[in-house]
Amino acid sequence: MGNISIAETRCKGCGRCIAACPRDLIEFSSDLNDLGYNYVVFKGKPEDCTGCTLCAVACPDQGVEVWNQKGKQTFVNTCGLTERMTHYCPGCTHGVIHRLTAEVLEELGLLGRTVGIAPVGCSVLAYEYFNFDMIEAAHGRAPAVATGVKRARPESIVFTYQGDGDLASIGAAEILHTANRGEKVTVIFVNNAIYGMTGGQMAPTTMPGQHTTTSPFGRDVSDSGYPMRMAEILATLETPAFIARGSVHTGKQALKTKKLIKKAFEHQAADRCFSFVEILSTCPTNWGLSPNEATDWLEQNMIPYYPLGTVKEPGGVSPRVPTAG
């Protein structure tokens, strides 16, 4: 039996918690909250809920908390995040990645010595949401700033939080050389296959045939090339590194991704190597889809091209480089 608390004032009406609940215990209210959204409510009885926490894991806005009365599973919002509402669109999974990152740092006892780097992009206001020291970097330059912080204060836990347009386009040289030098920082790379903040333009990670504002007829690979698999590109470097790819399009996948994030920070805390976690994320607004449709689109189109799992470990696992087809 689980105990669920839903903060209607934080709900943006994306419905991700509804899709995540295996027992169909959450529904939309007919009323609007102060944000103007039909918020969600719990429609079952406490004994109906198993306390699986998937609804809370799937919520991008820290609006759901779950307690399992047997004490085996608990999901309560982390102190690694502020109470501030995010600026992200309804259904955007940036909020999920924020929470997973903050949870890992809290669980590892690293919050007090963490420094995050937020560059330009949808994550430009990340310093408003993480409850520890943050630095703003110029577009694409977060790895360079992280290098400076880590070399000046090697006892710090330093990470960058970057989107695909920022990291794989204007910041491509920065990330390649930071990884090649083996800087002992962690990179959280959010791949939603599009430029989100600036209007939905084609990014280096945009899928073949995907429609964007700068590829209205779909990405033509004969003209623009294929999407760049940044995890596999970095894995070809000789420098020891931990490189992995996860996704947060469902609650179950988010929990798997949390383990990858945790492993990445454990490598940094042990002063072992550069670590990089690519995370597939949805962008319902710029994809022109509902949050649930965006989840399906990611699973059907992105995961076959961007396979999930560990790509490289410090021990020398051979990089996995799939074919373009």
Number of structural domains: 2
Q: How much helical structure, as a percent, in the residues?
A: 25-40%
Coarse structural class? alpha/beta
CATH class of the largest domain: Alpha Beta
Structure description:
A hairpin with a 5-residue loop joins strand 4 (64-68) and strand 5. The model has no long low-confidence stretch (mean pLDDT 93). This protein has 11 helices and 12 strands. The longest helix has 19 residues, at 251-269. It folds into 2 domains: 2-75, Alpha-Beta Plaits, CATH 3.30.70.20; 94-312, Rossmann fold (3-Layer(aba) Sandwich). It is globular, with a radius of gyration of 19 Å. By secondary structure, it is an alpha/beta fold.
Short description:
The chain is of the alpha/beta class and 325 residues long. It has eleven helices and twelve strands.
Describe this protein with a few key phrases.
325 residues; alpha/beta; Rossmann fold; seven-stranded mixed beta sheet; three-stranded antiparallel beta sheet; 20% strand; globular; Alpha-Beta Plaits; 31% helix
Give the topology, please.
Layout: E1 2-6, H1 16-20, E2 26-32, E3 38-42, H2 54-58, E4 64-68, E5 74-75, H3 94-107, E6 114-118, E7 133-136, H4 142-152, E8 157-163, H5 164-170, H6 172-181, E9 186-191, H7 221-224, H8 230-235, E10 241-247, H9 251-269, E11 274-280, H10 284-287, H11 291-305, E12 309-312
Parallel strand pairs: 6-7, 6-8, 8-9, 9-11, 10-11
Antiparallel strand pairs: 1-4, 2-3, 4-5, 10-12
